[in-house]
Amino acid sequence: MSHVDYVRQEHHAFLKASDEALSNPALQQILDKLGDSLGQKNKDAWDAFEQHDLVRQRARAIKDDTLAALDKHLATLEESVTRRGGHVYWAENGEEASGFILDMIQSRGAKKVVKSKSMTSEEIHLNKTLEKHQIEVVETDFGEYIIQVAGHRPSHIVGPALHLSKDDVAEILSEEAGEELPSNREALAAFARRTLRSRFAEAEVGITGVNYAIAETGSIVLVENEGNARLTTSLPRIHIAVMGMEKVIPKLSDLKYFLKVLARAATGQKMSCYTSLITGARREGELDGPEEFHLIILDNGRSKILGGPLRESLFCIRCGACLNACPIYRNVGGHSYGGVYAGPIGAVLTPLYDGLADNHHLPHASSLCGACQTACPVKIQIPEMLVRLREQLHEEPGQLGRMESLAYGLWARSLRSSWLYGWGTWLATRTIGRWKRRTCWLRRLPGSLHGWTKQRDFPAPAPERFRDWWRQEGQHQTGNEEQRRES
Amino acid sequence: MNRDAFLTRVREAAAAGCAHRVHLNDIPGGVGYVGTSAEKCVALADEISAVGGEAIVVESPVAAKDAVATLLKQYEAASALCWKHAVLDRLKLPELLADTNVAVHDHSTLAKLPSDEQRQAILAADVGISSVDFAVAETGTLAVCSKPGRERVISLLPRVHIAIVEESQIVPDLFDVFEQLGKLSFDDLPSNLAFITGPSKTGDIELQLTTGVHGPGKWHVVIVRDA
Ligand code: SF4
Question: In this structure, which residue's CA is closest to atom 8 in ligand 1?
Answer without folding.
Answer: A319
